[in-house]
UniProtKB/TrEMBL annotation:
Keyword terms, alphabetized: Membrane, Transmembrane, Transmembrane helix
Organism, scientific name: Sapayoa aenigma (broad-billed sapayoa)
Spans through the membrane: 104-126, 132-154, 166-185, 191-210, 222-241
Name of the protein in its database record: TMM69 protein
A Pfam family hit: DUF3429
Feature: compositional bias, Basic and acidic residues: 89-99
InterPro entries assigned to the protein according to its UniProt record, in alphabetical order: DUF3429
Ranges where the record places region Disordered: 78-99
Length: 255
């Protein structure tokens, strides 16, 4: 019986190996569920021809290769494209003083020295100087006029996002008029209060009313306005306190 079955086993094994050579790599990977069929070939050689030729689950190798290629090419679609570092740096909004251009930052800080130095010197020496206080008011008037004329320079170029309309140009002329009015007061206190009002109007123009300024410039304007206003108010406070102390000292000397 074994000798009579030997030709049949040899023919089945030869036919099975020939069929295995036709299977490609992707077909073997994707049709792993049919491994039981291959395992049964050695145990049931008389049925080896039928599963290989008539099984509906087995497809040509070209079909599996096409599916594998489509799956491979569809993977990059799920990956999120990240923009280059240069584009992300450009799109990143500037939100701090350190991100502002160095010339604008340093010149603005240098422009605050006359405001801060006046009340600082009077506080150190403990004496109120009317001439120095008036010099601070005069410098503040020049600064307010500069902030008003800066809008003209921003709106006049053809490629500027701001238009040279009544809103931009007329509002800019309000600031020099307020600065001029501050210089007409004989009392330094009234002039300083007028400058505080003018600086508040200028900040409202640059931040809220007249748009299109860069974000770093708006932040710079806010901090600069805070320092200027506090310096002017400090001068006014020291004027009141030091003059009262001087008047009290004179009264004690006379008595």
């Amino acid at each position: 019986t074994v000798i009579s079955m030997f030709p049949v086993i040899q023919r089945c094994c030869f036919y099975t190996s020939f069929k295995l050579q036709k299977f490609t790599g992707p077909r073997l990977l994707l049709s792993g569920r049919n491994m039981t069929t291959w395992c049964s070939l050695g145990l049931q050689p008389q049925r080896a021809v039928c599963p290989l030729s008539r099984s509906p689950s087995l497809k040509p190798a070209s079909v599996y290769a096409a599916q594998l290629q489509a799956f491979h090419t569809s993977l990059p679609a799920f990956k999120k494209k990240t923009p280059p570092e240069s584009e992300t740096e450009v799109q990143k909004p500037k939100e701090s003083l350190e991100d502002s251009p160095k010339p604008a930052l340093y010149l603005s800080l240098a422009g605050l020295i006359p405001f801060v130095s006046v009340p600082l010197v009077m506080a150190i020496q403990g004496t109120y100087y009317p001439e120095v206080a008036f010099a601070q008011v005069a410098y503040g008037a020049a600064t307010v006029s500069f902030l008003g004329g800066m809008r003209w320079g921003f709106a006049l170029p053809e490629n500027s996002p701001a238009k040279p309309d009544w809103l931009n140009l007329a509002n800019s002329t309000v600031l020099p008029l307020l600065a001029w009015q501050a210089l007409l007061f004989k009392d330094v206190t009234e002039g300083a209060v007028m400058l505080v009002l003018a600086l508040g109007v200028a900040l409202h123009y640059d931040v809220a009313l007249l748009p299109a300024y860069p974000r770093w410039f708006k932040i710079l304007r806010v901090w600069g306005t805070v320092v200027m206003v506090l310096s002017l108010l400090a001068t006014v406070v020291q004027k009141i306190i030091l003059e009262d102390l001087r008047s009290e000292g004179r009264n004690e000397v006379q008595n």
